[in-house]
Amino acid sequence: MSYSGYWGKCLEFLKKNQIEVGSLVKVRTDSTYSGILMPRYEHSDDRHIVLKLKNGYNIGLEIEKISQIEIESQPSIEKESTIQPQTDPKLPKILLISTGGTIASRIDYRTGGVTPALTAAELNASVPELSKIANIDTEVLFSEYSENLLPEHWIKIAEKLDLYSRSEYKGIIVAHGTDTMHYTSAALSFSLAGFPKPVALVGSQRSSDRPSSDAAQNLISATKFLVKTDTSGFFVVMHNSASDDEVACHWGTRVRKNHTSKRNAFQTVGGTPAFIVKKEDIEKNPSFNSPQRAYLPKINFNDRVLLIKYYPGLDPAVVGNAMSLGYRAIIFEGTGLGHVGKVMYESIEHAKRKGLFVGMASQCIDGTVRMTVYDSGRDLLNLGVIPLGNMIPEIALVKAMWALGNTKDVNEMEKIMKENVAFEFSD
Amino acid sequence: MSYSGYWGKCLEFLKKNQIEVGSLVKVRTDSTYSGILMPRYEHSDDRHIVLKLKNGYNIGLEIEKISQIEIESQPSIEKESTIQPQTDPKLPKILLISTGGTIASRIDYRTGGVTPALTAAELNASVPELSKIANIDTEVLFSEYSENLLPEHWIKIAEKLDLYSRSEYKGIIVAHGTDTMHYTSAALSFSLAGFPKPVALVGSQRSSDRPSSDAAQNLISATKFLVKTDTSGFFVVMHNSASDDEVACHWGTRVRKNHTSKRNAFQTVGGTPAFIVKKEDIEKNPSFNSPQRAYLPKINFNDRVLLIKYYPGLDPAVVGNAMSLGYRAIIFEGTGLGHVGKVMYESIEHAKRKGLFVGMASQCIDGTVRMTVYDSGRDLLNLGVIPLGNMIPEIALVKAMWALGNTKDVNEMEKIMKENVAFEFSD
Asked: Which three-class secondary structure state does DSSP give residue B7?
């Protein structure tokens, strides 16, 4: 019997009623609830059990208030590694590349923590619905939480995708940790601009073996999206709301992780997602157009770009120090319409004299940098600071690393930064 | 006649019809619009005129499509400096302290730019409605755009407010630039925790002499809020929507400027505003409680706190470099639940050995840092990194500057950072 994470009074209660984690139960308290008994983890008390309801929400129920509890069905036991997804030659082929992250991980119920474990094959096998939509080939590229990914990993993913650019696959899923998924989606969008197939970066905010996981729904929706829509380019495919009803396909250069834990943490900034996968159909955003660019991969990044958020009291010497570390470009997250305090001017002037690229995004995140409105902005323009429109700061950073990887000439870099390469400017 | 910003065909059109900027006009195109002719600025074309409609929105109308235009009233000419607001001894007294910013500025129509100009007295005089709500005394503390404010300015504002903590004023308005208004509201919230009066930081996203300005509505609402509610502490009082209908009073440590240009750019993160000033009444958020803390001002800040956003490719040497600049504390904007890549561990260990405070907020901005879920988080906890809950990163930065200004002991600083001093933790 598994009572993962339950202890004290809860454990006693579950043992007495012979109910284990994963069972579908009906519980009567003030109202009647039907749902799957979930494992508990981290700082759990011993007075509540947690059910995952059919709408996708979890609910905590105080055991003292439970007047009746009965089992509707026992937990389904799936030996994942032994399941072989069926193939149907009539279905399109999709490639699933795993890079790690929560979507490919399990909870360690002893420690309450999450560790990467599932391979791409296991992930595919663990979601049997997938085999009805597509024939999925799987490949493990690496297995890292995305906070540990570096530009060198972006290059590995891009090179792998480039290999499959003219393949038989209808589309490609990249299973990826959510922490830096939008950095990777931007890196792929720039380095593989014009990629002829649709690529869905898919993650999950709750690990795959937890009943509340969003992994299955995100994978199923991404597969549907790749199979059923006629588009190309890079998308982040994640829950659009707290429930399982809608999954959003965010354009890869306009997306940001805006919440630490919500399943719908990813949002299209300054707009709505390119596509929404609903239960029955896929809705296209009328303002979204598939890219028409020729595919000319330029898989180069140079990490000598420093992102600096300006704030009151920031020491201007951080700019000089960045130069001593060999940084060749600075992206400011300025305030408001794209400002930094006068205290920074001298160090910016110095950086420009040394040939650095200095770009301006806004820490407001949403909205457009406009440096012609106030004296401060005009002063900065005069110093040679390049306004970066409504590019999201993190995306501007990745673009600058890509531009710097492809040219050493600061004027050429300015030109690249101003060009709308992959819909990174949306206004 | 004033045709500010209009040129070419538009100028010709306006001259022919003898309509000047500021006139209330009725225009027939596909539909009929009534509004005030606005000045144009920045990159304007010569084919559109702009009206401010009664709902607060601006609309651009193509002159080629205008079938009829007539003047409903001429621009009202107010010589602001000659207007003396009436005083009514029965009304409560409010103090208006001006620090600069757009709210106290005018457009320079020659350059299209905005320059600070209005004094607090002019500001008061320019909004005649104020004199019906309160008797307003005014004082200019300084006149700076808020991107130029430094911790030393926070100290000046705090010291000035402290002088009035036991005064006859019912409440105090601080007119402030919007770029760093949330940094200042946090600085005041910490250094003057328990302040016995309500203080409203008020700014505007459009300058006071533009017909689309939000300055008047924000000032009127702030005055109503200070006069009519029985609370204390620091609030950012700004438009709650694009129209003039609602003005939000955001709690000073839970607010952020989330858009570069919208009038409702300021948002309460992870919740709803403390109060909403509506046309007829003021709505209190039921989850907001006025602070009950004793007033013990501690007006000290130390700017040796570096805010670092972690991203793939960040050079760990920036931490060592920060130490060489004398930084004593680092606030990371980590990814997701509060992570940085393994590449940073050694430099963090080094910083901890040198006695620095290292705190973790999330670049997601919304949601809570939880460092017990993943290996990465637990590793960082073991290195001595302090999780900062759901504190907004910029607020955590200001709090760290304040904590460091009040203690040199890193353990004491950790204690201060974990304490909920001014509702900076809301979960």
From this structure: coil
Burial A9-19 (b: 16+ CB within 10 A, else e): ebeebbeebeb
CATH number at residue B141: 3.40.50.1170
Q: Alpha carbon A210 to chain centroid distance?
A: 19
- Does the annotation mark B102 as catalytic? yes
Most confident among A17-21, A42-46, B98-102, B259-263 (mean pLDDT) = B259-263
Catalytic, out of B52, B99, B102, B223: B102
What whole-number distance in Å separates Cα of residue A321 and Cα of residue A315?
10
Mutation target to probe the A interface, by most A beta carbons within 10 A, among B153, B182, B212, B373 is B373
What proportion of chain B, given as a percentage, has pLDDT over 90? 67
- The residue among A260, A319, A388 with the most chain B CBs within 10 A of its CB, best to mutate, is A260
pLDDT for residue B44: 64
The closest CB to that of A313, out of B42, B260, B401, belongs to B401
* Helix residue spans in B73-214 (DSSP H): 120-125, 151-163, 181-191
Residue B185, in any domain of the structure: yes
CA distance A111 to chain B (A): 9
**What is the rounded CA–CA span in Å between residue B383 and residue B346?**
9
User: Could you give the number of structural domains in chain A?
Assistant: 3
- Which residues of A are catalytic, by number? 102, 178-179, 257
ipTM, 2 decimals? 0.82
- Cβ–Cβ of A378/B113 closer than 8 Å? yes
Identify whether residues B254 and B123 lie together within a single domain.
yes
The answer to whether position B214 is within a domain reads yes
Enclosing domain of residue A152: 80-284
Considering the domain boundaries, does residue A29 fall inside one?
Answer: yes
User: Do B405 and B326 share a structural domain?
Assistant: yes
